Amino acid sequence: MPPPLTFRPLTEADFPLMHTWLTRPHVAEWWQPTPTLDELRDEYLPCLAEAGTLPLDAPGGAIPYLACEDGKPFAYIQAYRVMASQADGWWLDETDPCALGIDQFIADADRIGKGLGTRMIRAFLHFLFADPRVTKVQTDPDPTNGRAVACCRKAGFRDVAVVETPDGPLLLMTIHRGA
Q: Which fold has domain 5-135?
C-alpha cells in the first residue's frame, strides 16, 4: 500500500524549492511565465498570512500547500475561493460562495503518469470537503494538457466546458460534494 499523502502550508523557506520546481520544463510548459525568485516571493508572501486557514475563511487569494509523501514534498497544490478571484476577471459567472478552485503540479517528471497525481487530487479533495461548507471544487487545466485532463477525470472531476479566461482557453472541470 502506498504511503499516505499529507498537505502542509507553503512557507517562506520553501520559496527556493518552489522556484526550482517552476523552472523544470514539464512544469514551466504549463505554468507560464516562470517567475524569478523575487517575483515568486512577491506573489506568494501575502498568501502565507492565510496559511492554516480554511479556504472558505481566507478573504483573498490562494492558499498554497506542498503535497508530501512520507513527509517529503513532491508537489504543489493550492486552493482558492472561486468568487474571490472575480476581482481579477476570473469566473465572473460563479455565484456559489462555497465553491473552491484548485491548481496543482507534480515536481518530478519521473513521477508523472504513475497515478500519483490522481492520488494527490483525491486526497486534497477529501481534505477540502472535510469542511462541510464546501459545495464543489473546480479545476481548469489547459485543454491541450492531456495528462492533466486525464488525471482530473480519474480523480472524479467532470468536464463543464472550454471557457475563455484571462490566461486563454481552459477546460473548466468540477466535482460536487458527495460525487
A: Aminopeptidase (3.40.630)
